Amino acid sequence: xxxxxxxxxxxxxxxxxxxxxxxxxxxxxxFGIDAAPIxxxxxxxxxxxxxxxxxxxxxxxxxxxVFRKVLEDHPSCWSNARSSVLSLPKPALLFSxxxxxxxxxxxxxxxxxxxxxxxxxxxxxxxxxxCAKCKKTxxxxxxxxxTVSLPELVASRGLTWAPFQIVGRGVVLRNVDVIAxxxxxxxxxxxxxxxxxxxxTHLVADQTDDCIALEDWKGDYLREKAAVSAQNTxxxxxxxGELQIKWIKLLKSPTFSRIVNAFNRDLxxxxxxxxxxxxxxxxxxxxxxxxxSPPPRIIPVRTAAYGCQICTEGTVGRxxxxxxxxxxxxxIMHPSYFAAHGLSx
Length: 345
Ligand SMILES: [Zn+2]
Ligand SMILES: [Zn+2]
What we know:
Blueprint: H1 3-11, H2 13-16, E1 29-30, E2 33-34, H3 43-51, H4 55-61, H5 65-73, H6 76-83, H7 97-105, E3 108-109, E4 116-117, H8 138-141, E5 145-148, H9 150-155, H10 157-161, E6 164-167, E7 170-174, H11 175-190, H12 194-243, H13 247-250, H14 254-265, H15 272-288, H16 316-319, H17 323-333, H18 335-340
Antiparallel strand pairs: 1-2, 3-4, 5-7, 6-7
Helix pairs in contact: 3-5, 4-7, 11-17, 12-14
C-alpha cells in the first residue's frame, strides 16, 4: 500500500526536484506533494527504496543526506541497481560506482559539435561522447586521434598500453595518451623494471576487458531502450487521446518530459499509476507553459581531461586525457610523488 506510490515519488525525485512552479517558488515540491515527510522515513524503508532504484536514481538520491548515509552503509545497492538495466557491467578501473553511473547514463557534451546530448558514450575506452548527428563521422572529425591496424597494435607494446577503441578499420587511439604511454614503456624497459611492467600490463588488460564488456552491453541496451521508448510513446498517445490534446503537447510539461526520459533511460514502462501520480502537476504545467521559462539545462561536463599537474605546461604529461594513463604516468615518471601521496587502485 505504502511502498509503491512513495517509491515512485522518491525514484522520480530527480524529475521534479529542480522544478518550481511560479506559484510555489520556494518550496520543494514533488508533483504538488510536499516532500518533507519523505525525508523522515526510517533507514529500513530507505534501504528498501534504494534496493529498487536504477543507477541514476541512486546518483540523484545520493545528493540527499538521509539517502546518502544509507547508501554508503550498503554499497551493494549499486550492483543491485546495475542489474536492473540489463546487468550493466561493473565500473572500469579507477572509477567509482557514482562516476560510472553518470558516465553511462547522464549524457554530456558532443565531442564534435559541443552540443548537449543524451547519447551513450561512443567509446567507453576513449571517453568520447557524440550526438546522433556527429556519430558517423566522429573518428574522422576529431583531432588528436590516430587509427592503427590491429597487427601494428600487437607489435608495439607502447601502443597496447594506451587505451584504444576497436573500430571496423582497426583501432583508434589518442595521440597524447599514446605518446605518454610510450614514454612510460621506454623508461620501464631502460630500468628493466619487471614488476611495474607486469603490474601495468595487467592494469591495462583489465581496463580493456571492462571497456569491451561495456561496449557489448551498449548494443543490447540501445536495442532495449528503443523498444521501451516506443511503448512509452504509445502510452503517451493513449493518455493524450483521452485528454483530447496532441501527445506532443504533453511533453511540453517539464515534469512529464523528464519522467518519460527517466523511464526510457531506466528501461521502465509508464503505467496508469505513474500517470495518476503526476497528472495534476502535468496538467497545471501545460496550462502554465507560456508563463514558464524552459526547463533548466543540465550543466555540461566537458570531455574528461586528466592532465598531469606535476609536469610543466606544454608537455605531453599535461595533456593526458585518460585516467589510467595518468595513473601509470605518475607511477613511472613521478615515482616519489606517487609513493608520497599513496595513490592506489
Ligand atoms: Zn554533435
Ligand atoms: Zn607528469
